[in-house]
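Researcher: Let's continue the batch. This sequence belongs to YjjW family glycine radical enzyme activase, and it's 287 residues. Same format as the previous ones, please.
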Amino acid sequence: MNSRCASVSKLIPFSCVDGPGSRLALFLQGCNLRCKNCHNPWTMGRCNHCGECVAQCPHQALSVSDGKVIWHAEHCQQCDTCLKMCPQQATPMAQSMSVDQMLTHIRKAAPFIEGITVSGGEATTQLPFILELFTAMKGDPHLASLSCLVDSNGQLSETGWQKLLPVCEGVMLDLKAWSSECHRRLTGRDNAQIKHSIVWLAKRGKLAELRLLVIPGRVDYMQHVDALAAFIRQLGVVPVRLNAFHAHGTHGEARTWTSATPEDVEQLADALRERGVEKLRFPALYL
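Model: Same format as before. Here are the structure tokens for YjjW family glycine radical enzyme activase:
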């Protein structure tokens, strides 16, 4: 029986920024939000093999065969020309990988990592693949000790979380704005389901980290800091990571937005501390 496959944007065998400790980070292709501030905008869409990128590639690393765009890794110089011009916000470099192939990569890295993190795009848009992968890891005596985390935008339904939690140690989740209006401006969708996911996961001890992204003049955390702090306090002892927006790597109008400074982050941190939110984590880097 063949194992399930997923569309994979990138695989990093050793990462120290995608959860606690050294981890294998798997980035799946496709997302159900359209965040203006996304630093991986080419992971949003799925390649529809239109072929527009093929002639534009300066290194002849792309071709068309049987109506599909083919990526030739041996010629690719990672210049990102195809990413910048893709009308689908996709990448022709995404690869189809099976659970068995992923397990091979994980086994090679296993002696040097504490676990794996599946991210995106939005990881849960390919939920069946994650379920099969995590289940296989839990059933393998050489991999069962590795923790399985998901980095998510929180749009998954409660039914989906119920399927995932038995094989997942925790979820790292972003709250990109407090009000639905502001969230809709930033991402194209409201945040009602995201708030529900945050509370639901926290009650079950599966919210590994809540993340707030400070974007000067764009997010509304400070305008609603009383409500935000009360919301966080009800979650219990959950780490809150304050991330600093930087325009580098973004696409479209976000390239002109002001990057967050340490002072911007400290302002929010001070306001949260004053309202009883203590377990804060800060950016390791400001750009």
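Researcher: Any comment?
Model: The mean pLDDT is 93.
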